[in-house]
Design goal:
single chain, 79 residues, mainly alpha
Length: 79
């Protein structure tokens, strides 16, 4: 493992300290887990966006009747 220095907000550091003590894990383990989860989430979001852009470039859109049914069921989007 490599050592990296990060500046984090004091409130986050306090939460990290307390959680690490409460569940008997190191702050390093928790920070690594948090960064791993964040990066995976961001990668999924970026992949979904890229997939959507590729579909749009190919002209692959949801038919109007399906979108109307979706909004009729779930409600109109909030502007």
């Amino acid at each position: 493992m490599r050592t990296t220095t990060l500046k984090i907000r004091p409130d986050l550091k306090d939460q990290l300290d307390h959680l690490a003590a409460e569940i008997h894990r190191s702050e390093t383990d928790l920070a690594n887990e948090a960064v791993t989860l964040y990066l995976a989430q961001q990668r999924r979001i970026i992949n979904h966006i890229q997939d959507g852009l590729e579909q749009a470039q190919k002209g692959e859109f949801v038919p109007d009747d399906e979108m109307e049914a979706f909004f009729a069921h779930y409600g109109e989007p909030i502007a």
